[in-house]
Amino acid sequence: MGRPKVMVREATPLVCVHGLAGSSRWWQPVAGDLEAAGPVALLDLPRALSPDELPGWVAREIEELAGPVDLVGHSLGALVALRVAAARPDLVRRLILIAPPGIQSRRSAIAYGPPVVATMLRARPRFLARAATDAVRAGPRNLLRGGSHVAATDARSEAARVRTPTLLVWGMHDRMTPSTIGREWLQALPDARLHVIEDAGHVPMVDSPSELVAAISAFRSEG
Description:
Blueprint: E1 14-17, H1 28-34, E2 40-43, H2 54-64, E3 69-74, H3 76-87, E4 92-98, H4 113-122, H5 125-152, H6 156-159, E5 166-171, H7 181-188, E6 192-197, H8 204-207, H9 209-221
């Protein structure tokens, strides 16, 4: 954990929120290129907090950056980012959700087991080592708590309250949250568009960093 790493420039900051069992290190393949458009803050979510407490924590971090900011979240982090935008629209200028759960959730956390295995088998060795280290740091209790929360969540009512322009990003080969769910998110969000990356799975920051940076940068430059 720690304070956001921010480079001070005259531009809207981009705040990045990692997913379950992740860390700010998951953004390293894209952070440098994203900084070309302005400051980037990489958050490490506190493991001591429950999933329900995380949106409030992220909102307080954004307040310290003197928002509004552009907010991007991956997987569980995307669900957290969605909830921040729904509850505090004054803090979020543009919202980017990468493979968000919360629609067509699974019946239990255990049901995520096979997709997790498939995702890890697809991962590059360097990232696999990073993911394993972060999972160990998170611990089984946090993993089960986060997985159970995601499995039980239906975020459509929260999505309906989001008025922030939103970019949905999916990897075509995502086994955790299939890209077909993106169409349902488009219906749930009042102002959203969908970008599918053909050569990526659940972690496009690692699978296809250049295309992800291009999609995020183009979206942010519109506002």
